[in-house]
Amino acid sequence: ETHGITFRIQISVKELLDTDVLLKLLFHLPVNYPSTLPDISVNSDQLTRAQCTDVKDKLLEQAKKHLSEPMVHDLILWIQQHLKYVIKQSATVCNEKPTLSKGTSTEDGIWMLLLHLDHMRAKAKYVKTVEKWTSDLRLTGRLMFMGRIILILLQGDRSNIKEYLILQKTSKVDVDSSGKKCKEKMISVLCETKVQSQHKRYNLFEVKEYSTLDELQKEFESAGLTTLFSEFVPPLLK
Predict the structure, then answer these.
(1) C-beta of residue 150 within 8 angstroms of C-beta of residue 142
(2) Which InterPro entries does this UniProt record tie to the protein (predicted)?
(3) Backbone phi, then psi, for 9, in 5-degree steps?
(4) What count of Cα atoms within 13 Å lies in the side-chain half-sphere of residue 3?
(5) What CATH number does the domain located at 111-236 have?
(6) How far, CA to CA in Å, does 14 sit from each of 82, 84, 144, 194, 204?
(7) Following DSSP, what letter does each residue of 157-172 receive, concatenated?
(8) 116-149, pLDDT tens digit by residue?
(9) Closest by alpha carbon to 127, among 114, 139, 140, 144?
């Protein structure tokens, strides 16, 4: 009676990259709703944090148009119809950021991502797809194979790394045990951090195979990533 009502709604929208986007919406309706706007929270594994914020802002904009009348159902219908445009608009804003002058350091925008894949059944196709994505998004780094360990180390603009993660999680990039195309469900984000001065910047993206753990360790050490290796790679052998 004093705090209002809070409830969650999950909706699936087939808008982004021709795949289903699962939106997790949290509505808090205050006691004097609908005369007062609801609080809205938006989460999705397929969208970046910035995109979720944009979706929330657009929903609140729509909510203002329905003030003093029940609106939750209308808001859900609206985002189902307009998610594609909200995401496109969000990407456009990101792309329109002014370019830095030659004398300005761009390190603030360079991030690093370390991913662990459980397996690749259709290895050749999978590798080709990863190479295309990294090329399209101007990401550098390594796709590393050592025994059963598969690691992807990426460096690049943070927004492009987020876009890569969306592609990795939402595209049918591998095949299942029956040979049907499937999405990557066995992926772990081991580390996502800003590139530091001691880290080597990769100039290109390469696929490499290592016969021993020592060889793999030397790859990390040569890039100034000894700590990253010791923290995340040995536990994968257990």
Answers:
(1) no
(2) RWD_dom, RWDD3, UBQ-conjugating_enzyme/RWD
(3) -135, 135
(4) 5
(5) 3.30.70.100
(6) 11, 9, 33, 32, 34
(7) EHHHHHHHHHHHHHSE
(8) 888 777 788 888 888 988 998 899 999 999 988 8
(9) 144
182-217 confidence digits (pLDDT tens): 666 667 888 888 888 778 888 899 999 999 999 999
Give start-end residues of each CATH 3.30.70.100 domain in the chain: 111-236
The amino acid at residue 153 is: L
* Cis status of the peptide bond prior to 34, with omega within 30 of 0: yes
Two tokens, residue 5: 């009502």
From-to residues of CATH 3.10.110.10 in the chain: 5-90
Q: What is the sign, positive or negative, of the torsion defined by CA atoms of 163, 165, 170, 171? A: positive
Return the structure tokens found at 129. 């797809």
Q: Report the predicted TM-score, pTM, of the whole model to 2 decimal places.
A: 0.53
CATH number listed for the domain at residues 5-90? 3.10.110.10
CA-CA distance, 75 to 86, in Å (whole number)?
14
**Which tokens is 194 given?**
């800003």
User: Distance (Å, rounded) from C-alpha 179 to C-alpha 189?
Assistant: 26
